Amino acid sequence: MLMLQALEHTRGNVSKAARLIGMQRSSFRYRIDRYGLGAAVQEIVSR
Question: How many domains does the chain have?
Fold first, then answer.
């Protein structure tokens, strides 16, 4: 998924990942919550 790739590239930085794929941070964060990606984000950040 593109969002997870962007988050991995930015080491979990949501603002940078959103900018990287041309989304607003709030929209990006909404999709993280909607699709249940919170655990994946935490795993990326904890690496």
Answer: 1
